[in-house]
Specification:
The structure is a single chain. By secondary structure, the chain is α+β, with helices and mostly antiparallel strands. The chain folds into three domains: about 20-100, ATP-grasp fold, A domain (Dna Ligase, domain 1), CATH 3.30.1490.20; about 105-225, D-amino Acid Aminotransferase, Chain A, domain 1, CATH 3.30.470.20; about 235-380, 3-Layer(aba) Sandwich (Rossmann fold), CATH 3.40.50.261. It contains twelve helices and 18 strands. It has helices at about 5-15, 30-35, 65-75, 130-135, 155-165, 170-190, 240-245, 265-275, 295-305, 325-335, 350-360, 370-380, and strands spanning about 20-25, 40-45, 60, 80, 90, 95-100, 105-115, 120-125, 140-145, 190-200, 205-210, 215, 250, 255-260, 285, 310-320, 345-350, 365. The strands form five sheets. Strands 7, 8, 9, 10, 11 and 12 form a six-stranded antiparallel sheet that branches. Strands 1-6-2-3 form a four-stranded antiparallel sheet, covered by helices on one side. Strands 14-16-17-18 form a four-stranded parallel sheet, with helices on both faces. A hairpin with a 5-residue loop joins strand 10 (about 190-200) and strand 11. The structure holds guanosine-5'-diphosphate (GDP) and manganese (II) ion. Manganese (II) ion binds near residues 197 and 211.
């Protein structure tokens, strides 16, 4: 689960990481009050979970509270689009923070390194831009340090890493402290990623996190109930947010063939077969085991919310799930949604015969095998 910048900064400041003063709001009047309280020289930042907010126009510096409030008012409710997120995201909240005077920008992150089964601290003097770009153009500018979670940080290794990164002298001990705080926060909050970019050095020589991105391991969320109510806010796609609310496992994949199946394995096979047939899956969706008609209907609705979907592929292997329940749910959804796109279904297993009978005469085209179904829906969707 990705946390918003304001949540990330709140979390990190509890561990002693220096962050700018500020507050979050979705109310333009309150935005003005916050900006005034901070003295007017503020940065207004869209709280959306996408990279490159700066370039997308979601981060702006101001000299007066009035100007900041005007911008906040425009920003709230607006859709921000970036290179990484062409679909864009609606801005619900803005963070208003004191402007940091930046003399130099660094990059610092703590990640999970699956290859070594350790944490990975990454540090670079090339902050402010995307780290992928630095990795490509100037890989030597990134210093990496593996941290064994059992041993924790080793002081001399950390000092060497900071020195090797060629940070200005006055930042060394502050960076050593910050990385210790980040690693502690990472472990205790079950994070799988913490990134500070930029980590700013002020003209007075003070190190401060001007931006912060924290992601918490979804499997550990039961230990972090404080985020329980906000999981749907942090979905990266509006339909994914709706899926979280409905308790449905859905991932948007950006293609044109909508997919609904039962069981993650079967759905993944469906994705492969759609790709093999020359199509692009619009989504992953697992209706789950033993789904009743009502749930199936909710799943079909979810897939159909995606305006890119040009065809629907239903792939069901009934075990606990009964195919007649699936068929009923599909038809209920079609009744309400006025579906016009082609639909192909491969239905096997428990009550398959009954299920097929229910679908007879509907717009659902039956297919005997997964491969045949995939070929058919791709042919029809892209016709
Ligand atoms: P991102 O584009 O989503 O990573 O958003 P950031 O919070 O990193 O902001 C983008 C850029 O705006 C940063 O790289 C900085 O150059 C600039 N910026 C953000 N906050 C401040 C600030 O307080 N002071 C100054 N001078 N620049 C800032
Ligand atoms: Mn940033």
């Amino acid at each position: 689960m990705k946390l918003h910048e304001y949540q990330s900064k709140e979390l990190l400041s509890k561990y002693g990481v220096p962050v700018p003063q500020g507050d979050v709001t979705s109310d333009p009047a309150e935005a003005r009050a916050i900006a005034e309280k901070l003295g007017g020289k503020v940065v207004v930042k869209a709280q959306v979970l996408m990279g490159g907010r700066g370039k997308a126009g979601g981060v702006k510096l101001f000299e007066t509270a009035a100007d900041a409030a005007n911008f906040a008012k425009d920003l709230i409710g607006k859709r921000l689009v970036s290179n990484q997120n062409p679909q864009g995201m609606i801005v619900d909240k803005v963070l208003i923070a004191e402007t940091v005077d930046i003399a130099k920008e660094f990059y610092v992150a703590v990640l999970l390194d699956r290859a070594t089964q350790k944490l990975l601290v990454m540090l670079s003097v090339e902050g402010g831009m995307e780290i992928e770009e630095v990795a490509e153009k100037n890989p030597d500018a990134i210093v990496k340090l593996n941290v064994d979670p059992a041993w924790g940080l080793c002081d001399f290794e950390l000092r060497k890493a900071v020195k090797d990164a060629n940070l200005p002298k006055e930042a060394h001990s502050q960076m050593v402290s910050m990385i210790k705080q980040l690693v502690k926060a990472y472990i205790e909050s079950d994070a799988d990623m913490i990134e500070i970019n930029p980590c700013a050095l002020t003209p007075e020589g003070r190190l401060i996190a001007a931006d912060a991105k924290v992601s918490i391991d979804d499997n550990a969320l039961f230990r972090h109930k404080e985020y329980a109510g906000t999981t749907s806010d942090s979905a990266e796609h509006p339909i994914e947010a709706e899926a979280v609310k409905r308790g449905i496992a859905y991932v948007n994949l950006g293609g044109e063939v909508g997919i609904m199946g039962n069981g993650a394995g079967l759905v993944m096979q469906s994705l492969d077969e759609i790709n093999a047939a020359g199509g692009k899956p619009a989504n992953f969706l697992d209706v789950g085991g033993g789904a009743q008609a009502e749930r199936v209907k909710a799943c079909v609705e979810l897939v159909m919310m995606d305006q890119n979907v040009k065809g629907l592929f239903i792939n069901i292997f009934g075990g606990i799930t009964r195919c007649d329940e699936v068929a009923k749910g599909v038809l209920q959804a079609f009744d309400e949604l006025d579906v016009k796109i082609p639909v192909v279904a491969r239905i096997e297993g428990t009550a398959a015969e009954e299920g097929r009978k229910i679908l007879e005469g509907s717009r659902v085209i039956p297919a005997a095998t997964v491969q045949a179904a995939a070929a058919k829906i791709v042919e029809l969707a892209y016709a």
